[in-house]
Amino acid sequence: MTLVAILSGAGLSTDSGIPDYRGPNGLWRRDPEAEKLVTYSYYMADPQIRKRAWLMRRDSPTWRAQPNAAHGAVAELERRSGIAVRVITQNVDGLHQLAGMPERKVLELHGTSRSVVCTQCHARSAMAEALERVAAGEEDPLCRVCGGILKSATVMFGQRLDPTVLAEAMSIAKASEVFIAVGTSLQVQPAASLAGIAAEHGARLLIVNAEPTPYDALADELIREPIGTALPQLLRRLG
């Protein structure tokens, strides 16, 4: 059975109304201060940063977002016989799963914004529940188990990726026959290195992204068309 690995980045979700980070209209370019809200050291040290971060989470477009045609095409490919599909995503929006990808076939490298975790006792709970507390007037809700600082269950700047998740992603990259990097600048390590690992192990590397990436020279095919139409066409061709 052919193994197709898909590494997805923020560009995959822009058609769903979730802005990317580093593109021409990206979040970090529009508001460099916003980066502090997702930087672990700032977040842990400053209650004001945490209050702003909770407001950012409350107002996130993720809660209104629906999977787009690209998410749907990935889920559709997974349902076809003869093709094993694994998604390795840098996104934290959960849209691959909402589109129908089985949870066990989606590796969330940077965690998920749909849960919160205590930085002290590591208890996890639903983001929706924490946001209800914010709506009720708690500016910086604390863990109900131990009173520790809560954060979204995402990997912030300054935090390591989960080594188990990363090891599994590397195994998938090495085993894949086709590796598609879509909507990612391939600038954030170690996620970006997966494209190189796949190519080194003989995978056909396809890059679908509006901007050039550091791995373009290794690619068997570069696609600069809009992801919402280009990825479904590419996956139909693969199927």
TrEMBL record:
<dbReference type="InterPro" id="IPR026590">
    <property type="entry name" value="Ssirtuin_cat_dom"/>
</dbReference>
<feature type="binding site">
    <location>
        <position position="146"/>
    </location>
    <ligand>
        <name>Zn(2+)</name>
    </ligand>
</feature>
<keyword id="KW-0520">NAD</keyword>
<dbReference type="InterPro" id="IPR003000">
    <property type="entry name" value="Sirtuin"/>
</dbReference>
<feature type="binding site">
    <location>
        <position position="118"/>
    </location>
    <ligand>
        <name>Zn(2+)</name>
    </ligand>
</feature>
<dbReference type="InterPro" id="IPR029035">
    <property type="entry name" value="DHS-like_NAD/FAD-binding_dom"/>
</dbReference>
<feature type="binding site">
    <location>
        <position position="121"/>
    </location>
    <ligand>
        <name>Zn(2+)</name>
    </ligand>
</feature>
<feature type="domain" description="Deacetylase sirtuin-type">
    <location>
        <begin position="1"/>
        <end position="239"/>
    </location>
</feature>
<protein>
    <recommendedName>
        <fullName>protein acetyllysine N-acetyltransferase</fullName>
        <ecNumber>2.3.1.286</ecNumber>
    </recommendedName>
</protein>
<dbReference type="InterPro" id="IPR026591">
    <property type="entry name" value="Sirtuin_cat_small_dom_sf"/>
</dbReference>
<keyword id="KW-0808">Transferase</keyword>
<keyword id="KW-0862">Zinc</keyword>
<keyword id="KW-0479">Metal-binding</keyword>
<dbReference type="Pfam" id="PF02146">
    <property type="entry name" value="SIR2"/>
</dbReference>
<feature type="binding site">
    <location>
        <position position="143"/>
    </location>
    <ligand>
        <name>Zn(2+)</name>
    </ligand>
</feature>
<feature type="active site" description="Proton acceptor">
    <location>
        <position position="110"/>
    </location>
</feature>
<dbReference type="InterPro" id="IPR050134">
    <property type="entry name" value="NAD-dep_sirtuin_deacylases"/>
</dbReference>
